[in-house]
């Protein structure tokens, strides 16, 4: 592979996977980690549990992005998830996509 082909491939990967790479920082930025973790149960479900539950559902990233912003209760028990209205639409979608990518 030439140097230029390698740079082109790196650019394509950043364009394609950039959100997934940036999202661990995003969940820390909005303090999602106070209640959630990738594979350790805290107050809310783990990211792995969420990814598994919604693995085959169409349009789920958008649904979870809205849930991040509006909060909810009942899907994972009686502990409510408070609304996070300061999370922008773009950031909420990035966070949701990241969570769904956790295996």
Would you mind describing this structure in some detail?
- It is globular, with a radius of gyration of 15 Å.
- It has a single domain (23-101), classed as Cytochrome Bc1 Complex, Chain D, domain 2.
- Helices cover 56% and strands 0% of the residues.
- The protein has helices at 3-29, 47-53, 60-70, 89-101.
Second rung of CATH, namely the architecture: Orthogonal Bundle
Q: What helical percentage do the residues reach?
A: 55-70%
CATH H-level superfamily title: Cytochrome c-like domain
What's the total number of strands?
A: 0
Helix count, per DSSP? 4
Write the layout of secondary structure elements.
Blueprint: H1 3-29, H2 47-53, H3 60-70, H4 89-101
Question: Summary?
Answer:
The protein is built from four helices and no strands.
Sum up the structure in keywords.
103 residues, Cytochrome Bc1 Complex, Chain D, domain 2, 56% helix
